[in-house]
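=== Discrete structure encoding ===
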Amino acid sequence: MPRLHFESAERLWLVHTPSTTYALRLDENDNPRHVHWGRPLTTAQAITLAGRTPAPASSFDTTVEAEELAADGGARFGPAGLRVRFADGTSGVEWRYAGHDAEDGHLRIHLDDRHHPLRLTLHYRVHDDSDVIERWTTIANRGEDQPIGVRRLDSAAWNLPHRTGYRMTHLVGGWNSEFQLKRAEVPTAETVFTSRRGLTSHHASPWLALDDGTAGENRGEVWSTALAWSGSWRITLHRDPVGRTSWTGGHGHEGLEWSLAPGETLETPVFAGLHTTGGFGAASRAWHDYVRGHVLTHPGETRPVLYNSWEATGFDVDEAGQVALAAKAARLGVEMFVMDDGWFGGRTSDHAGLGDWTPNPGRFPRGLQPLVDEVHRLGMRFGLWVEPEMVNPDSDLYRAHPDWVLHMAHRDRTEMRQQLVLNLARPDTAEWTHAWLDRLVTEHGIDFLKWDANRAFTEAGWPGHPDPDRVWLDHTRAVHRIMDRLRAGHPGLRLEACAGGGGRADLGVLARTDQIWTSDNTDPVDRIGIQHGFGQLFPAQVMGAWVTDNPNVTTGRRTPLRFRFHVSMAGALGIGGDLTTWTEDELKEAAELIAVYKRIRPTVQHGRAHRLAGDGALTGVGYEHEDQYVVLAWCPSRPYGHNPAPLRLTAIDPEAFYRDRDTGASYSGAVLLESGLPLDLPRGDYASALVHLVKD
């Protein structure tokens, strides 16, 4: 079956993925109407659905057929994904079909306004190996003399078939509490998910899933979408009183307006979506496969075990101290050493130095090269923390270029964490930023950059610019371009996306980085929930997860080293504690656990993840890859001292036997599915287990 099919007599398009069909058509007024998104349909079945066009209930109601991208104009009263105003004061659009083209799984449908020189193109792209449909929009001002005001330009709208009990699943949080999964009935209302912070944000995620109210981890229909954008964004979910359910989303937030100049084209980020009948677990695995196949630049690489110096030193960084930490990290089997904040300019606290990206001469009198060389001699790669988008007012950069920051005339410049945001929409600021990053990597042979961003946008203006709201879009695009240029110029360089933890986690930044720092909160109990939410969209290989000190710096909680390791082994393992204070027994245990992680790493990082739920507080993840199956299980508490029952596994062959690689015990696949895997959990709270099974 071809991926894209056009039925000309019906003006109907069918977009096929391996397991689903998406269908849309043009109505008699050339409006693009949604027909179907879900289980596979034949052309004849899609034609039957397209013929169902109920009339509005009354003159007070909206047009009843769902639209592919709702716009202002006519009898439309729901949330509009496209809002424009023309120079004569007219708002809204009336479409005339201007043709379509399709190649290599990419469908483009062109629509022109019937009076004004505006062209809209709807994009749909699919891949042979994925049920994910990538959608985005371009608009072009085809006039010669008048700009067009753009008040909202979404990437796509998604529409669902009629069901009575839809639920929404989304992520909320804050700094140190990112990716908290929430599930609730979809209200009869408009529900807005948004970030107005200039970053993807800790507080909400541009990922949204809906199900019919009956889906579970391993069964049921789920529709899931994710926006590939690293700045402010907005998704509006709408359920009307008769049960029609849709959502529209894209970059920007309410209150912004951009000017589309004559001859200019504006393109939105991808808003991707998938449908599955296999529940929330199948949706996550489909996203993970898509990320590996079509987002990540180096999906086949295993992420190294890294050490980061932040919790050991804070801002108290110098060559001798870093060399000592590097030596201890190398003893453990760490593969990459990352020096965090405090190495540059006058950076002895967060009050000064951001923007002055040269080594502090008092702390590194010989520059960075001796440290880099020593780390490489120890057999590790070298990484460095940077915050390219920010500047302290107490810095040489700001004193020289106070106009380079986001600001507005006659308004105070709000400082957060004693810093301001550089306006990378400015070509001169962006070019300077790329230049110092490129020079730093080139001169010192840097292998890895942790790219941080530690505050939200305020006073996001550009005095004197004719279209100041464009800074909300152009800054994010500049960040993406700088990352792209760095990677192109340094093919061996690897990047980690960070924004005070998980404040910038999205498919847009992940296309330019190799992993994401999930949260500044490294408490393993909190991390179980944070990592559960993160894994709804992202695979384990991009999830930065550190083992840090006791008591935890965030919560003060004390947990066994084994428990901390087992939680962090569920992602891209890192060490972030002060190794100079660890006992010899702790260092020995850590080295042994790192060796175990390296053995299971291919399965964890490249395998398919299955979330597991047991009795009480017992949860876990099973990773399957080729003939390997790795179980990581955690039991933070044991009410009344009761031991949980064996943990039931999924994705196990019931006809096969599985051997525990460490104990030699053999288990029937049918028994593992039905009665579970017995776990050798230590007594007490904060118990955990790692079981490495091999299919015989």
Observations:
- The chain has three domains: 4-294, 306-503, 611-695.
